[in-house]
Amino acid sequence: MMTDRQKQLVKNAEAHRQLVLDAERWLWAHPQTGYTEWQANEYLVEKYESLGYELVKAGNIPGFYTDIKTGRPGPTLCIMGELDALDIANHPESVNGMTHCCGHHAQSAALLGLAAAFKEPGALDGLCGTIRLMAVPAEEMIQLSFREELRKQGTIHYMGGKVEFMYRGFFDDVDIAMMVHGGGSKTDIDFSCGLGNNGCMAKTITYKGRSSHAGGAPHLGINAQYAAMLGLQACNDLRETFQEKDTIRFHPILMGAKVAVNIIPDEMKIESYVRGRTIEAMKRENKKVNRALAGAALAMGAGEKLCDRPGYSPEIHDPAFMKLVEQCCGQLVGPERVDFDYEEWSTGSSDFGDVTCVMPGVQFSASGSQGTAHGIDYYVADPERMCVNSVRPSSSSPMPFSPTMGPPPRRSLRAISPSTPPSRPTSRPSTTSFWIKTPSPTTKTATPRWTFKTTNFQKAPRESPRGAFLCNDHPMKIGPSTSHPAAFPSVQKNPRRCWGEVRLVGGCVGSLWVRGRGRPFFAGPKNGPSHPQPFHGTNSR
User: If DSSP codes are grouped into helix, strand and coil, which group holds residue 287?
Assistant: First the structure.
């Protein structure tokens, strides 16, 4: 049964129902892919600013955030909506070959409705801390060549929008995060959630052959397409070696030979992911895949260029936070219309996984779509359920952190302990990780602390001639003297004295973060797997 407070929040959401529905239709009609979502960005910026919000904009890429301060101390909760669409040219409602076939437009519309609902009189009564609303680009890990070019230009440093926002300091002060993703066609279920989903790493391989006349002189050529086909067959033969518990997924696509039918193709490109339940599993099976792909080139006498890029961490929802959201949803729509499975595991991937590596997080789903996600038959059949209905739990989920409900917010936050990713070492790590640990406080009166003044992470050399794993090609400083003014503004303005640990976690999406004063904040940068990096700089006590 809903409380009076929740009834008021539902009323606030209903007051802006038409705003949400109009936004859903507009965003659906203006799809753009990752890091190009400028139409959606400008539309939403105008809407948020018309509501009276001051925005912190990403600048050279789409996206922004705004903080709603309750005026009372407490944690910072980040609620996100995604901006990007997919390349699905054969969808009946595609625009310039793009379609919102994952429902991100519905997320953004619901987030706008939430922003409007929080402007209603009394909407923040009983809440504490800060609510950060964030519009994030580039969740779908597609168009890798385009993103790689942006990376080389210095426009971005990471393929995924949330990881890029981490790098830019947008999560520095966030304690806990949540999202409502559109999905699910069940008529009897409004909200659902599982324990988590796979991580992924992105890969491209280019086979280089030699062109020749396919009929008159095939012996003078080297068929790059045959090399690619041989490599894919070898990878398919590996599938029986993947353990079911690791939920490995390998799904390549051929980029096509751009030659006439009577010419032996001299180049063929493959793009793929290797997905898995743990970083260790992804790294292990990726080695097999790389060996198979490279061996095919050797067998055909072709050259090959193999490039692996850090993808996304496995997404692990915090069970205690899940329970709070489940209870909230159950009160709003009835427990019989809520399906939270604490064992269910999805084999898809999201950059929200990187967020859950450093803070408690939950991404649950709102029903209302029809067809197959990422398919040509996908559409939002019931925007009321998917969009308007999503505003309600998002607005009331912060309630368990209010000072009038249960324990104090900080104690509540500590009770929701961050989920431990499988990649997180429990002892001194292997050569794939680098670990620095400072002393912990021993007494209340004598607390040893460290100030990280200048921390410089240098480029690590490749471990193998093939360079299966690549690291960032730029040095990075953290602190007041940082060489990247856009990064970590809070660190520059107010360097934190903290105890705890700084670590660079090995694996395809290892992250560097600082834990101090009982709360983690991202310190950057992230880099590719298998590259321990030396620690340079000064630590002063």
Answer: helix
Predicted confidence at residue 400, as pLDDT, reads 60
The pLDDT of residue 9: 80
Q: Which parts of the chain have pLDDT scores under 70?
A: 1, 185, 397-541
Q: Are residues 48 and 156 both part of a single domain?
A: yes
Q: Are residues 130 and 23 in the same domain?
A: yes
CATH number reported for the structural domain that contains residue 177 in this entry: 3.40.630.10
Model's pTM, two decimal places? 0.75
Q: For the chain, what is the domain count?
A: 3
For residue 58, give the nearest of 168, 194, 186 by alpha carbon.
Answer: 168
Contact 201, 286 (CB under 8 A): yes
C-beta separation of 314 from 194 below 8 A: no
40 contacts 83 by C-beta, under 8 angstroms: yes
Tell me the residue type at 477.
K
Together in a domain, 411 and 509 = no
**Do residue 406 and residue 454 come from a single domain?**
no
What DSSP state is assigned to residue 144?
Answer: H
What is the Cα–Cα distance from 512 to 506, expressed in whole angstroms? Answer: 10
Domain end, chosen from 258, 288, 312, is at 312
Q: Using one digit for the tens of pLDDT, what is the confidence trace for 346-396?
A: 999 999 999 999 899 999 999 999 999 999 999 999 999 999 988 888 777
Pairing of strands 56-57, 369-370: unpaired
Amino acid at 464: S
